Amino acid sequence: MYEDEEEIVKNINEAIYWYKKSAEQGNQNAQNKLEELKNREIENNSCKIVNITC
């Protein structure tokens, strides 16, 4: 939702917050998404993503 900008303003940091919460509870999809976002940040330095730890 926050990542895809559906009915709300896109907020990648909010998306990361919720993915992290879910990943901490063992959700594999959230863990994969965090890794994907981390890789996207590495490839695209114009996107400032903070506090990603996988």
Summarize the helices and strands and which ones pair or pack.
Blueprint: H1 12-24, H2 28-43
Helix pairs in contact: 1-2
What does this structure look like?
- The chain has 54 residues and is mostly helical.
- The protein has one domain (1-54).
- The chain contains two helices and no strands.
- Helix 1 runs antiparallel to helix 2 (28-43).
- The longest helix is centred in the middle third of the chain and has 16 residues, at 28-43.
- It starts with 11 loop residues before the first helix and ends in an 11-residue tail after the last helix.
- InterPro entries: TPR-like_helical_dom_sf.
Outline:
With 54 residues, the protein is an all-alpha fold. The protein has helices at residues 12-24, 28-43.
Please name the defining characteristics of this protein.
54 residues, mainly alpha
The helix fraction, in percent, is 40-55%
Structural class: mainly alpha
Helices, by number, come to 2
Distance between the termini: 21 Å
Total number of beta strands: 0
Radius of gyration: 11 Å
- What's the domain count? 1
Average pLDDT over all residues: 77
H/E series, N to C?
Answer: HH
- Given as residue ranges, the uncertain stretches (5+ residues, pLDDT < 50) are none
Largest sheet, described in full? Answer: none
